[in-house]
Amino acid sequence: MESLTYFNQQIRSSIETKQRLLERDDVLEAMTRAGEICLEAYQAGNQVLLAGNGGSAADAQHIAAEFVSRFEFDRLGLPAQALTTDTSILTAIGNDYGFEKLFARQLQANGRKGDVFIGISTSGKSPNILRAIEIAKEKGITTIGLTGEGGDMKAMCDLCISVPSSHTARIQECHILIGHAICGFVEKGYFNG
């Protein structure tokens, strides 16, 4: 019975966090604006670049895959890159320049003005994400942050979507929901708009 209670509590906690997300007009407005920013970038011929660490790296890859492959329906792919996937690039930059420059170096090399960078950090404090935001801004790349309640990302990003939680798992669960919602918004707007 204790095991059943544990899983019940996990599901309830997830639902409660998403309910708080739903009740926050500022978060819903930020999600809407993020979708508009990505759609406008695609309509102008640009791309979306994403990065995160650990579970957030997986989220970056997941969201990029939804853009490139498909989300709700069959259509042409949209250009998106997760900056977390090329082990040769990651190990070269990590070895030669340090882990803090892992994503900044890739943005410097492959990002261009008009692109969108989505940095994902549950704490809002990941040094390699913060450095990437700095480089993106220097290059004219619009920055969107996905984070929780804390950290420096809020002040640094052009737009920041902050999940009202300090619990990593709940934040990550909301980040993938937000990513899916943005993908769906862009897909409908770009192909059915």
Automatic annotation (TrEMBL):
Residues 38-193 form the SIS domain. One of its GO terms (cellular component) is cytoplasm. Substrate binds at residues 53-55, 66, 95-96, 121-123, 126, 172. Keywords: Carbohydrate metabolism, Cytoplasm, Isomerase, Metal-binding, Zinc. It comes from the Bacteria. It catalyses: 2 D-sedoheptulose 7-phosphate = D-glycero-alpha-D-manno-heptose 7-phosphate + D-glycero-beta-D-manno-heptose 7-phosphate. Its main location: cytoplasm. Catalyzes the isomerization of sedoheptulose 7-phosphate in D-glycero-D-manno-heptose 7-phosphate. PANTHER family: DNAA INITIATOR-ASSOCIATING PROTEIN DIAA, SEDOHEPTULOSE 7-PHOSPHATE ISOMERASE / DNAA INITIATOR-ASSOCIATING FACTOR FOR REPLICATION INITIATION. This is Phosphoheptose isomerase.
